[in-house]
Amino acid sequence: MDPTCTDVDRLMNRYYLPVTYSIIFIVGLLGNLTSISIYVTKLRPWKSSTILMVNLALADLLYVLSLPFLVYYYTNEESWLLGDFLCRFVRAGFHFNLYGSILFLTCLAVFRYVVVMKPLRAAQVQQKFWGVAACSAVWIVAAVEVTPMLTMISLEVRDNKTSCSDFASTISDDGMQWYGWLLTALGFLLPLVVVFMCCVGIVRQLGKGPNISSPSRMRARRVTVLILVVFVLCFLPYHILRALRVEIRGTATCTVERTVHAAYIVSRPLAGLNTFFNLALYTFSGDKFRRAFLSAFHWEHWLQKAKSVLQVSVISKAADDVPAA
């Protein structure tokens, strides 16, 4: 036994994952339910981008609803008492949301690229048909990508406890490793290249001509850059560390393996944090959503009142500062 080898990964499973998953669950549940209700009740008629946003929120909602099971599992010292089906469903559900979100964000980037680069086609791209077609394709592709995982994840009995291991901790043979690499290449790297190219093209195009600082152009830049940020901050670390975890598992020293596993554990909730960025994406995507959100909670009235009070105080202060004649 290596005396320098610690149980840091087990400690993180016990304390770090339940806390982070609980935070993501609370914020994600409230945020996505609110977003979906606003889209459904206040933002009609829908465009293709709206349909993509609603489906993205649905994917995030399905993900956060699985988190209480994982919180219970890790607080219960990684003892799974909920059966084989729920184990497979929860573990595969994380990846279904992950790759569904990646594809939805990629579609949003492509749609915005077409609107910016081909303005004459903007009206056609914004038709409902393209939104429905894109979302149908995303759900089907995500299901195809994740379905093989259902046969790889299963319950394991270790130390007199029934464990429900994550995908990277389940991979053991070359066939599974090839599936992991294929999933990374087609499910993440290819969409990352597409999003990066769209981002570069949109930023360059919006930097040309007059009115480069107009609100609509600034909003388009923010949305595009935010999508790329989600890929780099949330999805990239997870895929790098998952690949590293799979490759060194059972071959590296205890210290290296535990360290890499701990880093991989950190990246898992980080990938789930895309739900937070997606909530910001709904707000940045257009003024209609912001106005609908403020009106839903009656904040617009109080904001207007606060602005009026502030303006009155500024005018009064300016008048007091005028010297007497």
TrEMBL record:
How does the entry describe its membrane topology? Multi-pass membrane protein
Do you know which PROSITE patterns this protein is assigned to?
Answer: G_PROTEIN_RECEP_F1_2
Q: Give the GO molecular function terms.
A: G protein-coupled receptor activity
* All copies of domain G-protein coupled receptors family 1 profile, residue ranges: 31-282
Pfam families on file: 7tm_1
Localization, UniProt: Cell membrane
Transmembrane segment boundaries: 20-40, 52-74, 94-117, 129-153, 178-203, 223-241, 261-284
Q: Name one GO cellular component term.
A: plasma membrane
Q: Which InterPro entries match?
A: GPCR_Rhodpsn (IPR000276), GPCR_Rhodpsn_7TM (IPR017452)
Primary subcellular site in the record, as a coarse category: membrane
Hey, what's the signal peptide range on this chain? none
Protein's name according to its UniProt entry: 2-oxoglutarate receptor 1
Q: What is the lineage of its organism?
A: Eukaryota, Metazoa, Chordata, Craniata, Vertebrata
